[in-house]
Each structure stands twice: as structure tokens, then as C-alpha cells.
Amino acid sequence: MQKIAEKIGAEAIRGGVHLSQRHDSAHKHVTGLAEYTDDIPEPAGTLHAYLGLSDRAHAEIVSMDLAAVRAAPGVIGVLTAADVPGHNDISPVGKHDDPLFATGKVEFHGQQMFAVIAETRDQARRAAKLAKVDYRDLPFVTDVAEAMKANYPFVTEPLKLERGEVEPAMAAAPHRLKGAMRVGGQDHFYLEGMIAFAVPGEDDEVTVYSSTQHPSEVQHMVAHVLGVPSNAVTIVVRRMGGGFGGKETQPNIFASVAAIAAKKWRRAVKLRPDRDDDMVATGKRHDFLNEYEVGFDDDGRILAVDGTFAARCGFSADLSGPVTDRALFHADNAYFYPAVRLRSKPMKTNTVSNTAFRGFGGPQGLIIAERIMEEIAYALGKDPLEVRRANFYGQGERNVTPYHQTVTDNIIDRVVDELVESTDYAARRQAVIDWNAKGGVIRKGIALTPVKFGISFTATWYNQAGALVHVYNDGSVHLNHGGTEMGQGLFTKVAQVVADVFQIDLDRVKITATTTAKVPNTSATAASSGSDLNGMAAENAAQQIKDRLIDFAAEKYSVDRDQVVFQPNAVLVGNRRVAFDDFVKEAYMARVHLSAAGFYKTPEIHWDRAAGKGRPFYYFAYGAAVSEVSVDTLTGEYVVDRTDILHDVGRSLNPAVDKGQVEGAFVQGMGWLTTEELWWDDKGRLRTHAPSTYKIPLAGDRPAIFNVRLAEWSVNKEPTIRRSKAVGEPPFMLGISVLEALSMAVASLAGYAECPRLDAPATPERVLRAMDRLAGREA
Ligand code: MTE
Ligand code: MOS
Q1: Residue 463 Cα, ligand 2 centroid: separation in angstroms?
Q2: Ligand 1 atom 3: the closest Cα is on which residue?
Q3: Are 335 and 302 in contact (CB under 8 A)?
Q4: Predicted structure pTM score
């Protein structure tokens, strides 16, 4: 058959798998033609909602007088807890600790208490400020250390992971050291803020256009607050302008309010908060206070690790359980701990309930592994890279994680070796040391940090996906699946898979908005598993149709099934070659079913949380980065001079998109550890709630030299979609190389005799203070 195909001279399809393809919306993003929720034309009579937020961190609500709000120009009405027709509860994990509107008390500064609905957004926004609320203040804590001191409760069950005997191993270790590290939180700073646009339908029906990573959850939540079954609620999202985990559970607030108002007033209702309110009222990355003890030998080999990971969870559980679990799952990073005990402390605080953010707690745990490497290196006077290499997971031995999963796909040595070679790491490190020895104002630092990141949702049931593929009788293909597009290129990758199954050009596959009406019971597009899950489900759907087409042709033309071959934009049946469109038309006329629902569930994985044992991850993704920085010792200001990354995405479905993910993730990780600082004042108010006070990296902050390569030789050992690997989150943690390079520059002021123990974010102020301390200067 192959011979015949060659004779006919078939070319490759345009846009198949493993090819660099531009993001399907790239040109629309830059020309403004990409439609976001706020761009959807509003039907006549559309109303606008705005949230009324608390201005106390913890208080009883003695009374709430909304008369002035109701009387304000343009106001149609207000909604409070009493107006919620179903349940006043949007807890995504069934803990009933997340009221849609506060009743009786408020538990953080910025909690939603009511909503006002008006003719225009501006009227609603102004009216919301007119509420007169009488509070009785209660004691509060905003900080995780204070919360522990005040014996605040956990918001959810803590986790313990344990392997081996920690006490005796620690006691027998030739060296021991203890430390603590504060790891900051992070605002998602998606370009498109939160938004929901609800259009009422007949009877109990409502359609909500929501900027959400998790349409099914928004659907269930809207049904829950309305007191209607899920079949009455349809959620639609064509794309988000970024989510980064911030739109996994937090859109529930906005969608619920818009839907209740739309049903109540029978008009379309839109809710879009200002950036300030978005930042104040929605959850962020958890900041952590981590404590560690490590025992090690003269070679820097770890013998025992004991760690606690306390997180500022905010007032409710939200996703803090799985987030703090994932911190523990990544506290080993790429290193073998012979004896280990890790504990999470998901602390309640009177702050906004923290939530998913790229890496999902993993980065906050993983950074401790890297801090430990750094500590050991300074203690022994070694290059941290040498300590890292001494502790990497082995091949066939020293390969069991703290959660008792065996690492069978380890490629960290090869990744690191190649990067060391290609970046001339050893010579450059020596050059940095020589430069610093001159004692100038500008000091330099260089660091190589690796990442190993587990792929799968640790909530096992989330590892399922559905897709719906139609082939219309003109040969055009309609693709839908449960994944959402937030800029990461998921829709393009899944379309490439479908194009490949049918062997048709990519532009013949129509990418369509995610909607709960087409594919039900979907998981959040999260845990980096969007293409793993939805790619497989879509392939399954397309393959079902293809199988029916093959059956049809084999029977009609009396040939064997293997005589029906899909060639680029054509089908070869025996010796007869038909254009794909004509072939489909023929099949339609013969009444072949040209639509299919596909399904996929990740095999092999299981997790016993109580025992702390299992295989929570289907596989691991690996990578490494070398960063070099320059620091001004008089001001603490710094620049990243150069970063080189080698990252593993298995056999990439789309190298261009994957490289973009690696670049973006690295820069976002670098921002988390350097300039992005969240700061609450003594009244519990978040004071960094706009770009004026919260500094994300700008184009000019990217490394001056920035080389990103994919490990092209890598192939996923597991049969994932075309042997690719997830890419969304793992490279985020490569930003740690910048923090450690800064640390080296600081350490140079004291002859590298002491680990500077920089907390994160290492803002210029914090770097300056660390340098003052090490240099023995007056602050
Ligand atoms: N890339 C862009 N451009 N925008 C985003 O919001 N979110 C990240 C990552 N990359 C994000 C992104 C996060 S937190 C995750 S979990 C993954 O994308 C989700 O998409 P995927 O599973 O399809 O990779
Ligand atoms: Mo990503 S934090 O899993 O949405």
C-alpha cells in the first residue's frame, strides 16, 4: 500500500502533529479579532452587575443598609444571600465554607456581601460603594506564622508523606542543618480579568458565557445557587485571556451572580470587576512558610529530610487541600531522599481564599529541595550543581519518591549534562567567581536548577476527558472537547491530532467554543494535562468515525480493511483514490454515521491519601535552566543577563507552541521569585492590587540572552497522545535558577562562606538587605 501511495505522489498534510504551527488565534489576538466574553454583542436590555465587598478582615455584620444603593441612578435592584434561590454556597470541594454572599460575618477584606444590578456598569459600580454596613470587629490574622501562633485551624486535612526512618537517619548523619524559607504568593494577572455574561432562557434555563478553565464546575455551581438541575445550565467559553489557575474555581462567584440576576430580571446580565477588585476579591497562589531539616554526608549526599510546609490558605478550603498536597509531592524535585518525612499545614487566615496557580503548590514545595541543595553546597564549599548531581534519582535504584511511586522515566542526568555542555557552565561559573573576586559594585551569580514535575491530577477521577467530532457531508470537520483555551495553544494541538487521524489539512478542522452542552462532566483544564486528556479523547472520537468510513469502503468496494488508506486529503480504496470530501459525501449517501463522542481516562494511576502511597502521576516531565544575573550592591537592583533552558516535552505535538509555553512559564516563575510581591497592611487590606504596586515582569525584564530548547530526543515512555508530554506548568519552576543566581551574587560579599537564605520574592529591597547583612553594612 505504501508503494501505491508513493506512486500517486501524496504530499504531507498541512499542520499535522509534531509540526510547529502557529496558535490558531495568533493573528486574531494581535489584530483584536479574537472574541473574548466582553466582546460578545450584548442583547438589548443587557444589565450590569457589580459586587459589594467587605472592608473588614474579620467582623460580624451587625446590619447592612442598602437603601442608598437601591436609590442610586440606574439601579434595578440588589442581591444578597436572601435572594439566592438555591444554595448560598460556592465551595468547589463541598465544604460549604464559601458563601456566595457573606451572611452574619465577613472573613476577609474584600469578601462579597451583595451585588447591585444597574442599567450600566458604571452605575452599578458607583452604587456598590453606597452601602452602609455596621460591623463588629473580630480579631484576625493574615499571616501564616501568626495563624500558627494563634492556633488557627486548618482549612482542610493536612497530609503526611513518609518513607524510611527519619530520626535515626538524621541522628547518624555526619552533617545536619535546619532552616526556614518564606515563599511568596502571586497574583495571576491574566490580561483578561474575570467576567461572566448570563443570558436567561425559557423555564429554568440559563446560558452563561464565562471566562473559566472549568466550565463543568461553573455549570454545577450555577445550578446549585439557582436550585435547578445541571441540565438547565449551559456554560460557554471560546477562550480566556489567560487563566493560570486563577480561573479554575474563582469564576464561580461571577457566573453565579450574573445567572441569578439574569433569571430574576429576565434580562441578560454581565459582571466584570475592575482590576483592583479582581485582585482583592479572588484567590491567588498560596504563600508558604517552609521549615526543613536535612542530614547529609561529606559528599553532600542527603541521608534524611524532614520538612513542614505551612500555607496561607485564606478563609476557606477552596483548592488548598490538593494545592498543599502537591507541595509535598514536589518537595523532592529530582532528588532521592533515603529517609523522609513531609507534612503540610493548610492554615486558615483572614485573607482571600487562595487557589490554583501554575504548578498548583508544586513550586512552593519544590523550591525547598533547591534551597536544601544550596544550603548543603555552601556548608561544604561546593558548587551546588555537584550537590545536585550527587542526589539525583538513580536509574533502577535510589528511585522511590516520598509517596512510594517509583521513578521509571528519569532523564534528568541527560538533560542536565547537555545543558551544562551547551552553556559552558563550568567556565562561566569560574568567570563569575573571578569577576566577583575583583570586588566591584556589580556582582554576578550563576545557577543551574533542574525540574521534575509529576503529571496527572492527584484527584484521580479528574483524569478523564470527552470530545465530540462531527464530519459534515462536505468533508469539513467540527471539533469540540472539554478542554478550554487560555492562550496555551490547546485547541491548536488537539486540532492537529484530529487533522492527523483523517489526514486532512489543519484548516479543515473547525475549532469551536467549549460548552457543557456538547461535552459533559469535564475536568478543569489544569494540571498541565489539557492536551494529554483532550488530545486522546479527540483522537478516540475521530478514530471511531474513521473506522466506520473504512468499514463502509471495504464493504462497498470489496477490499480488505487495510486496502483503505487515508492519504493527505484523500482516501485510497484499493487502486482508486478519492478526494476526502468526495469520499465523505459517498459515505453520507450510504448513511454512515459521521459523528462520534470520544472518551479517555488515564490508565495506571491510583492514590491512597490516608496511607500516603500510590502512583499519583502517570509520568514526569523534566527540564533544567542556567541563569546568570548581575546585581548592583549599592541598590539591590538586578538584571538577568542570560538564561538557557533545555526542557522535555516528550515528542512535541507542536514545538513552536511548546517553546512559547516554556518561555512564558519561565518568565512567570521568575516574576514570582523576584518582583511580584503581595502585601497586606495591618487592617488586613491587600495593598498591592494594581500594576502600580504589583510588578509583573515586563518585556524588558526578560533575560537579555534567552535560549530555549526542547529535548528533541525525548519520547514519553508511556503511550500518551503521540508520545508527547505536558508542558504548561513544569517550566515555571525553572525560574528558581534566577533566585539562586541572585543568592550567589549576594553570597560573594561574604566569600561564599554562608548561604544567604534569600526569601522569595527576592525583591531589590530584600536583596539589598541580605547584602547589607552579609557585608556587615549598616542597613
Ligand atoms: N499559558 C497561557 N498562555 N495562559 C494560561 O493561562 N495557564 C497555565 C499553562 N499555560 C496558562 C498557560 C496553567 S496553570 C496550566 S495548568 C496549563 O497551561 C493548562 O493548559 P494545558 O493543560 O492545556 O497545558
Ligand atoms: Mo493550572 S494551576 O493547573 O490551572
Answers
A1: 14
A2: 487
A3: yes
A4: 0.97
